[in-house]
Design brief:
β3 (69-74) and β4 form a beta hairpin. This protein starts with 13 loop residues before the first strand and ends in an 11-residue tail after the last helix. It is of the alpha+beta class. A four-stranded antiparallel β-sheet has the order 2-1-3-4, with helices on one face. The protein has helices spanning 54-61, 84-90, 107-113; strands at residues 14-25, 28-39, 69-74, 77-78. The protein has one domain (5-97): P-loop containing nucleotide triphosphate hydrolases (Rossmann fold, 3-Layer(aba) Sandwich). The chain is globular and about 45 Å long. The structure holds adenosine-5'-diphosphate and magnesium ion. Adenosine-5'-diphosphate binds at residues 25, 28, 30, 48, 50-56. Magnesium ion binds next to α1.
Length: 124
């Protein structure tokens, strides 16, 4: 996947911002200088043919893959290189194409697992 960051809207109001992301798997360049801006409350779709690099980009944004080059900022913080669970806790979360259910749990409990990282409780 390649993109020109100049086609992105003004980066001023973007909450998620990636710049110049290059990701290689050996000799395969999955992402070449990709940039993206996602604004608050924006619903953005990434489309492209099989192998275009959509999943690779999602994996870079959520911290599953470390790109060889580029930066990822979320709400002003540099999140590249941080642990996946920390990035998820802060709000950048991915789902997966294939579903994996906890077969010993109820439907509602399976759904609630996805909410767990956003739940807060205390003794006070
Ligand atoms: N874990 C991986 N190891 C090696 N090559 C990969 C891996 N993940 C993706 N690729 C390669 O990177 C390119 C982009 O793949 P991918 O991000 O899965 O595209 P999409 O999600 O758009 O179908 C493809 O050439 C794919 O074969
Ligand atoms: Mg994919």
């Amino acid at each position: 996947m390649t993109s020109n960051s100049s086609i992105s809207p003004s980066s001023e109001a973007s909450v998620l911002q990636a710049r110049d992301i290059t990701l290689r798997f050996g000799g395969v360049t999955a992402l070449a200088d990709v940039g993206i801006d996602v604004r608050d409350n924006e619903l953005l779709a990434i489309i492209g043919p099989n192998g275009a690099g959509k999943s690779s980009l999602m994996n870079v944004l959520s911290g599953f893959y470390q790109p060889q080059k580029g930066s990822v900022h979320y709400r002003g913080q540099d999140i590249k290189g941080r642990a996946v669970h920390e990035i998820a806790r802060d709000g950048v979360v991915r789902t997966f194409q294939g579903t994996h259910l906890f077969s010993n749990m109820s439907v509602i409990d399976n759904i609630l697992v996805g909410r767990y990282s956003q739940m807060r409780s205390s003794m006070g």
